[in-house]
Design goal:
With about 150 residues, the protein is an alpha+beta fold. The chain has a single domain, classed as Aminopeptidase. About 35% of the residues lie in helices and about 15% in strands. The protein contains five helices and four strands. The protein has helices at about 10-20, 35-45, 85-95, 110-120, 140-149, and strands spanning about 1-5, 50-55, 60-65, 75. A four-stranded antiparallel beta sheet has the order 1-2-3-4, sandwiched between helices. Strand 3 (about 60-65) and strand 4 form a beta hairpin. Helix 1 (about 10-20) crosses helix 2 (about 35-45). The termini are far apart. Bound molecules: coenzyme A (COA). Coenzyme A binds next to strand 4, helix 3 and helix 4.
């Protein structure tokens, strides 16, 4: 296995877009809807993370992994390549390349990701709640909740 920097390559944009297309809302926190290809390209080209890699196995790209500037780790493996130990190996390799503290923010319904990070020695740190301020104010949400009772 090899970790290949994403860089500014058009090839990376396409591989990462295909990976996004496979993801379901329950697997992710940040990615709930498919972005437009153009917006996705801008994001990739903006060099958003501390490090960002494609995971290469022989001639195939099997997934991606990254560390954000806040030391949050992300990983995604193409469905056809899952359960072969690639996520475990890629995360281990990346953590060796960039040693230090790591966080993993995981959707609570994403059991397999929780198992993956527990297996790598990560410990549960906190439970974070969100009130979606962009959609409704908290007063509106409280009023909705009261109306539903
Ligand atoms: C989560 C994900 C990265 C795991 O990748 P993977 O290459 O299949 O993982 P590995 O083969 O290294 O498996 C490592 C461990 O993860 C857990 N795991 C992986 N897939 C699992 C599944 N389908 N069910 C239960 N546990 C699972 C297991 O504990 C596994 O260890 P084991 O095989 O010894 O039982 C992959 O399923 C994926 O890309 N999912 C979509 C994106 C995502 O959820 N990313 C994480 C967001 S934080």
């Amino acid at each position: 296995m090899k970790l290949v920097p994403v860089g500014n390559e058009e090839k990376s944009v396409d591989i990462l877009f295909a990976l996004l297309a496979e993801r379901t809302p329950g697997e992710s926190i940040s990615h709930q809807q498919m972005p437009l290809l153009e917006n996705h390209r801008k994001f990739v080209m903006s060099n958003p993370y501390q490090v960002w890699y494609l995971i290469q196995v022989k001639d195939d790209y099997v997934g991606t992994c990254y560390i954000t500037k806040a030391r949050e780790v992300g990983i995604s493996i193409f469905q056809a390549h899952r359960r072969k130990g690639y996520a475990t190996q890629a995360l281990r390799d990346m953590m060796v390349l960039r040693p230090g503290k790591f966080y993993a923010n995981i959707n609570p319904s994403n059991e397999k990701s929780q198992q993956l990070f527990k297996g790598l020695g990560y410990k549960l740190l906190q439970v974070t709640y969100i009130l979606d301020a962009e959609r409704k104010t908290w007063q509106e949400q409280m009023a909705d909740a009261e109306a539903a009772e």
